[in-house]
Amino acid sequence: MKYREVSQILEDKQRTFDTLKRAALSLSVPQSGYRVTEGQWTIEEILEHLVLVESRLLRLINVSTHKLEKSGAPSSAATGLNIEIPDGTERNDSFKVKTKKEYEPTGTSSIVDSITKLQTIHDNLCALRPRLERIDLNAVSYDHWFLGSLTLGQWLAFIGIHEQRHLGQIRSILASATFPKQ
Question: CA nearest 176: which of 47, 40, 51?
Fold first, then answer.
């Protein structure tokens, strides 16, 4: 996946979140807590995991944006925005990535609570757009525990791609032959 504008990243994320929200909010309590196999997350737990990850990434992006604004670094418009995330990096459902302990769901968040929190995170991320467009998103990078070093722009894109991966997992749960009808 390649991005040349912050708007592309946020639009892709919006589409993914809208699809995720429609799927999740239509579920009954038994459906939201359905576990296909022992050890696999429920849809409720997947959404809680997304809240844990995205709230941390929003803080990272917000703090980094503030630091870059203060540094006077040139904007991505001046340096040329070219953010690339390798296809399949986070969307490959056949490859299980074990998350870090702090991002594991506790099972204490309802779907409505998680969707509400994800909406707030998404709104805050979109509110950062003008500021993100004024900084060089390639100027700083931070390590991902599994993927290695990612620039701030790649972290921004990662949020939506990570959501896409988990949307795929939700679709797999919904398609399960044993998924409850109600």
Answer: 40
Structure tokens at 173: 């749960």
HSE-CB of 56 using CA atoms within 13 angstroms: 11
What is the mean pLDDT, run by run of 10 residues, along the chain of 182 residues? 88 96 95 94 97 97 93 66 63 62 92 97 96 90 83 92 94 95 86
Q: pTM value?
A: 0.89
Q: What is the helix (H) or strand (E) element at residue 141, kind and residue range?
A: strand 141-144
CB 48 within 8 Å of CB 33: no
Angle at 39 between CA 161 and CA 34, to 5 degrees: 80
Judged by phi (left if over 0) then psi (alpha if -120 to 50, else beta), residue 72 lies in left
- In this structure, the dihedral spanned by the alpha carbons of residues 144, 147, 149 and 151, taken in order and rounded to 10 degrees, is -80
Amino acid at residue number 112: V
For residues 66 and 140, the answer to whether their CB atoms sit within 8 Å is no
